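Entry for the shared binder. Reason: the reviewer on the internal report wants the predicted structure included alongside the sequence.
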Amino acid sequence: MMISKTFRRYLLLELPGWTLAAVLLWFIVDRWGLALHWAVLLWLGWVAKDFALYPWLRKAYEDGPDAAELLVGREGEALDRLDPGGYVRIGPERWRAELGPDHDAVDAGARVRVRAVHGLTLVVAAVVDERG
């Protein structure tokens, strides 16, 4: 049986809570005389709650694209001349950018499109007006 990466991540992040619950219940059994079978049932209920919630929480534990990768395809404006590097504004944010290979220099104020992301640097190309 193969356990998915998402489910494995969920289990690893729940493990400290299960451990803490077990330690607290053991303390209550030891100090205040709670019957061991009640402590075990409470702990199993705690763990069962986490398994029952997994279908609703699964999406939060899945791998997704990096935030910077979501910029690929978006358009922005060159803040200064890109020859080959400089800064662009994509939405409200200012990004370090470089022109992709085989692209001519882009003047400040020109529209650019993000082609790729390398670390925190965007690889851009000038937007060609196709309206003719």
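Summary line for the report: The helical segments are 5-32, 36-61.
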